[in-house]
Specification:
The complex is a heterodimer.
Chain A (H helix, E strand, L loop, with lengths): L10 E6 L8 H8 L1 H15 L3 E7 L3 H16 L15 E7 L8 H8 L23 E5 H13 L1 H5 L9 E8 L5 E6 L4 H8 L9 E6 L5 E4 L9 H6 L8 E6 L4 H15 L5 H18 L5 H17 L3 H5 L2 H9 L1 H10 L14 E2 L9 H5 L5 E2 L7 E2 L9 H5 L5 E2 L1
Chain B lengths: L3 E4 L2 E4 L6 H7 L23 E4 L3 E4 L10 E3 L3 H16 L15 H8 L23 E3 L9 H9 L6 E3 L6 E3 L16 H5 L5 E3 L3 H9 L4 E6 L1 H10 L5 H15 L3 E4 H22 L5 E2 L4 H10 L13 H17 L6 E7 L3 H6 L5 E2 L2 E2 L3 E4 H10 L21 H4 L6 H12 L19 E8 L2 E9 L1 H13 L6 E5 L17 H16 L10 H11 L5 H7 L14 E2 L9 E6 L2 H5 L2 H14 L6 E6 L11 E3 L2 E3 L7 H13 L11
Parallel strand pairs in B: 1-5, 10-11, 10-13, 12-19, 13-16, 18-19, 21-22
Antiparallel strand pairs in B: 1-2, 3-4, 3-5, 6-9, 7-8, 14-15, 17-18, 20-22, 21-23, 23-24
Classes of the chains: A alpha/beta, B alpha/beta.
């Protein structure tokens, strides 16, 4: 698209604002093989007729920035970057722009605004960056991994690349697998690898020995997959068919001790904090979804809240301005879809089935185990524990604030919750 | 076949519609919006104008260009659900108090909630209350009512070229605010009030002085005199459905008398006086070729803009006071004399289309002692409210005429209210000559809403090069071109608001371009029906000169009708407290730590002076402050002691300076003068 647009100036922009918590695929490429990225950008510049590129990299990656700078200097010295590359007519310059910490700047139009020195807020599309991007000029925006793949593909041919992966999702993908699995870290797998293989073969299964419950895929804006999806191939189409996305490639594995309502609340807390605040639905919608989720997790939720939560989530998904807003409700919608019973348990039965939500916990002293040392009573911040030394103590549940200190300090595992 | 779009089953030709929203509105469907204004850039944030486009899903129509064959549905179930949810979410976050809100019945949020049937808000109330910015004389900013549509941000940045407001924060902490959470009086706001004109809610409103005016009216010891600006009559006419500006003015005179004003005058009279003074001043400069181009100085927002951003051009501004201030100074002096009253017992009220006029009236240049020339400024909005408070049905009132002499005007004084009016008034006078019966010409080339207009007029043997500018971003463009030599003019009229005063920030809502056009047309009609069109021919102006003022630009005229300007390039009130201030008199010692002074060691000078003061035991007598610029950079580092600025106080000379200047000053002895810049 950018190649076809007539313009005296075009830009190549690399999106290296890897903001998803726990995601560091781009970091590893920039630190490990920065030249692959530079080469990919050069090729893109040559292909579309651009002579200038920007790498927008988050300031929290000082080592990546340092190595990119070194790589740029090396490439320039080798005559592979700069004016008249290899003595030919093609010139290409690459600048590094450090991000200032806003998650939304990973959205391409917000990223462009940020490079221009403006507040990073998404712009409505059209016009697309390919038509009018950086400083109003046609601009190619791609991710680090995409650019880094280009030299290999050119070198080995498209057929080689297509030999990995599936028909519609060729090649490989790097995932960051973390959470309750035995082996955490970066993995590169062919597209279409089954979730089961990723979690149990590569990930080594659940570390705690507990039962697998779900995996959150695609970063904080991603959806949750359950054990019903274990045989789902990880490719674009299959994931889309179940309302999930590859996204940044984050995989958070959860076992049965994880409360899915709390998971939704956790991600909503992140998306709300990182909403740029431009469009009404994302700014206010995430705030209210968070408010309702906090209510449910806090034991004060009602069935009306549940339907309102769903209503807001759908409106935010359908009506938001940018990709972040449109995907922000994903954690809510997918947990509502697959784990509605957990929501209902919180609201109707007044219990957190996973035992994670503190508001639903009740602390008691197991009389048989208690030696009457009195440590818990001394540590209790609200004096809710009483008793005589050398006889079992008692917790007054009306006074208890469920801080859990008693359980932490008890040397005899006599506090049950 | 003509390219067309199908909107709710109706085929509509695209023609030259800029976006789908405008096309939909042309078909008679009033799609709601908060953040769309045809004169501002497309923002796409309020999500109210969404529609379903077949094949593309839900899209905002404001940012979608119409394409041939598009099929659009504007009120599907899904679309309506999203729209209602967006409104409910906004309402949940909005501190209502509708009954007592300034914007009640004129609030877009209220109107749309009604229209779309959002009658319950199911979310929990938020209890965090943000402080209200109420510290300037013109505008009130209530962030609790802000819906973050960004209209004010874009108005200030794009149309006015200033940008005092912007977004800050993330998530639910996002605010529209001046830099660093300051208030408007601490930043470069020129108080034009254009933000008020676009704000859909009560987040930005005009600061009212109506209560002060009522108090003066009820005070039997006050003679309350009112002047009405030219642009107000056209706004009143439209507000009450009166077809002519003169009719509206006549009825307003009756209303003002019934409200209780003792004398009712026309600012158009002093507009004529301004024309005579300003034209005389200009012809003098034009002959000498000095301080050209001459800029008009009637618009207080423009004057503040020039003082802040283009102080180099201040000598080029006409030194004439604005018509409002000319009126104030004449009224306070001569009405008082005529009536045998004290200056303090005359209370001058202005009715203005403008919010910056409130700021202007408070400028220290326009007062004698503690008594201001203009005591209170009401916007057109406030006058309309007062008329309502008094229960007057303005449209049904009989018209009345103004008091003399300050109630008689020529057509030139009336068109002051539209962009190009001041320039045309000057041209009429300058080109008419002084012969009896000389006809004033009309100058259509300077009229109209265009942001920058140019005209070339033959004046004797010379050609007068003239520019007429409205909107401060356009002023920036012209000033930059003048600075670079790209453009050359002899006279430049600048009005801060688009369309001139007819579009002032104090005008009733809607204050959009069509409303401004209609008001402008009424003013030119009012000009046409006046017997005289050249300010110099106003018989009462002539009388004023022969009995009171002497000759135009003469000594007395200068004293009463002219003013001066000052550079506001430096931030004020930003000194950093360094030592605890005690209640008893201390001598203020400000050491500049601006770039120039800092580079020459002012910071060391400062530390040494503080140390020496401590050692000498006089630290309690000196109030040390670090300041940012004393505007004498060539002599840096600078130190100000009391009102005197001393230059060249490099660290090595700190001790000598301390002994020669600070020590005697602290002991109450006169300082040696040698070091003064």
């Amino acid at each position: 698209m950018t190649q076809r647009v007539q313009s005296s100036k075009k830009y190549i922009v690399c999106n290296a604002d890897e903001g998803d918590p726990g995601a560091f695929m781009d970091e590893s490429i920039m630190e490990g093989n920065p030249h692959a990225l530079l080469e990919g950008m050069l090729i893109a510049g040559y292909a579309v007729g651009s002579d200038e590129g920007y790498i927008y990299v988050r300031a929290e990656y000082p080592l990546a920035i340092q190595r990119l700078r070194t790589a740029i200097t090396q490439a320039e010295q080798a005559g592979l970057l700069g004016d008249n590359i290899l003595g030919g007519p093609f010139s290409f310059h690459i600048h590094i722009k450090e991000g200032a910490g806003a998650f939304v700047c990973g959205e391409e139009t917000a990223l462009i605004s940020s490079i221009e020195g403006q507040r990073g807020m998404p712009r409505p599309k059209p016009p697309f960056p390919a038509q009018a991007g950086l400083w109003g000029k046609p601009t190619v925006v791609n991710n680090v991994e995409t650019f880094a793949n280009v030299p290999r593909i050119l070198l080995n041919g498209a057929e080689w690349f297509r030999s990995f992966g599936t028909e519609n999702s060729p090649g490989t993908k790097v995932f960051a697998i973390t959470g309750a699995v035995a082996n955490t870290g970066l993995i590169e797998v062919p597209m279409g690898t089954k979730l089961r293989d990723v979690v149990f073969k590569i990930g080594g299964g659940i570390r705690t020995g507990k039962e697998f419950k779900a995996v959150q895929i695609g970063g904080p804006y991603g959806a949750c997959l359950t054990k019903d999806h274990l045989d789902l191939p990880l490719d674009y189409d299959s994931l889309k068919s179940v309302g999930a996305m590859v996204g940044s490639g984050g995989l958070v594995v959860m076992d049965e001790s994880t409360c899915m309502v709390e998971v939704a609340r956790f991600f909503m807390h992140f998306t709300q904090k990182e909403s740029c605040g431009k469009c009404v639905l994302c700014r206010e919608g995430t705030k209210r979804m968070l408010q309702i989720l906090e209510k449910i997790v806090g034991g004060r939720g009602t069935l009306d809240d549940l339907s309102l939560l769903e209503e807001v989530a759908v409106a935010v998904k359908d009506g938001s301005l940018c990709g972040l807003g449109k995907t922000a409700p994903n954690p809510v919608l997918s947990t509502l879809k697959h784990f509605r019973d957990e929501y209902l348990a919180h609201i109707v039965d007044g219990v957190c089935p996973a035992g994670e939500c503190e508001s639903f916990r009740s602390y008691s002293i197991i009389q048989e185990k208690c030696k009457g040392c009195g440590l818990c009573a001394r540590k209790c911040p609200v004096n809710a524990i009483s008793g005589e030394p050398k006889t079992p103590y008692i917790i007054d549940n009306r006074a208890c604030v469920k801080c859990g200190v008693c359980a932490e300090v008890c040397k005899f595992d006599a506090v049950a919750f | 076949m003509q390219p067309s779009v199908t909107i709710d089953g109706v085929r509509v030709p695209i023609n030259d519609a800029r976006n789908l929203l405008e096309l939909i509105r042309e078909t008679g469907i009033e799609l709601p919006t908060f953040c769309y204004h045809s004169e501002l850039s497309v923002y796409g944030a309020c999500r109210m104008c969404i529609a379903e486009i077949e094949g593309r899903g839900i899209q905002p129509t404001c940012s979608t260009p119409p394409e041939d064959g598009m099929v659009v549905h504007t009120h599907t179930e899904q679309v309506m659900r999203i729209r209602r949810m967006a409104l409910e979410l906004l309402l949940a976050n909005h501190h209502g108090n509708c009954q007592t809100c300034e914007k009640n019945t004129r609030c877009r949020l209220q109107e749309l909630a009604q229209r779309l049937g959002v009658q319950t808000v199911r979310f929990e109330e938020s209890d965090d209350v943000l402080p209200i910015d109420n510290f300037n004389h013109s505008l009130v900013r209530d962030p609790n009512k802000c819906i973050l549509c960004g209209d004010c941000v874009r108005m200030c940045k794009e149309v006015q070229g200033i940008g005092v407001l912007d977004f800050a924060g993330r998530g639910s902490g996002v605010r529209v605010t001046p830099a660093f959470g300051k208030n408007l009086n601490q930043v470069e706001c020129v108080y034009c009030g254009q933000c008020v004109s676009v704000c859909p809610t009560g987040a930005l409103t005009v600061k009212s002085q109506a209560d002060e005016v009522w108090t003066a009216i009820y005070d039997p010891n006050k003679i309350v005199v009112v002047q009405i600006a030219p642009a107000v009559r056209s706004a009143i006419a439209l507000e009450y459905g009166i077809t002519s500006g003169e009719q509206a003015l006549g009825k307003t005179v009756t209303a003002l008398r019934r409200i209780g004003f003792d004398k009712v005058y026309d600012t158009s009279f002093t507009a004529d006086l301004t024309t005579v003074e300003e034209t005389t001043e200009f012809l003098g400069r034009f002959a000498e070729g000095k301080h050209l181009p001459q800029f008009t100085s009637c618009c207080p927002a423009w004057v503040k803009f020039a003082e802040q951003f283009y102080p180099d051009f201040l000598p080029n501004l006409s030194s004439c006071k604005s018509p409002q201030q000319m009126f104030g100074s004449l009224a306070k002096k001569y009405l008082a004399e005529q009536m045998g009253a004290e200056r303090e017992s005359i209370y001058v009220v202005s009715v203005m289309p403008c919010t910056a006029k409130k700021f202007e009236a408070k400028r220290p240049e326009f007062r004698v002692g503690d008594n201001p020339d203009v005591d209170a400024v009401l916007s057109s909005q406030e006058l309309i409210r007062m008329i309502g408070e008094a229960g007057l049905k303005l449209a049904e009132l009989p018209p009345d005429s103004m008091d003399l002499p300050f109630g008689f005007k020529t057509g030139a004084g009336v068109i002051f209210g539209a962009s190009g009016g001041v320039a045309e008034a000057v041209l009429r006078m300058a080109s008419a000559g002084s012969g009896p019966g000389a006809q004033a010409t009309e100058f259509h080339e300077v009229r109209g809403m265009e942001g920058i207009k140019e005209a070339y007029v033959q004046l004797g043997e010379k050609t007068l090069r003239l520019a007429v500018v409205n909107g401060l971003s356009n002023a920036r463009e012209v000033l930059d071109k003048l600075q670079s030599g790209e453009a050359e003019y002899d006279i430049v009229e600048v009005m801060a608001c688009r369309g001139g005063c007819v579009g002032g920030g104090g005008q009733p809502l809607p204050n959009d371009m069509p409303a401004r056009e209609a008001r402008k047309a009424l003013l030119y009609e009012a000009d046409a029906v006046q017997p005289l069109h050249n300010a110099a021919e106003n018989p009462y102006i002539k009388e004023c000169y022969s009995t009171i003022l002497g000759k135009p630009n003469g000594t007395l005229a200068h004293k009463l009708l002219h003013t001066h300007f000052r550079s506001r390039r430096r931030i004020a009130g930003e000194e950093v407290e360094l030592s605890e201030s005690a209640p008893i008199e201390k001598i203020p010692v400000s050491v500049c730590v601006g770039t120039n002074c800092y580079l020459r060691g002012s910071y060391d000078t400062l530390s040494r002076l503080i140390d020496m003061a401590r050692t000498a035991g006089i630290a309690d007598k000196l109030d040390f402050k670090a300041t940012f610029c004393l505007e004498k950079c060539k002599a840096s580092p600078n130190v100000q002691v009391g009102a005197t600025v001393y230059g060249g106080v490099i660290p090595d000379k700190a001790e000598a300076f301390f002994n020669d200047t600070l020590l005697p000053a602290a002991k109450g002895e006169p300082a040696e003068e040698k070091a003064e810049v």
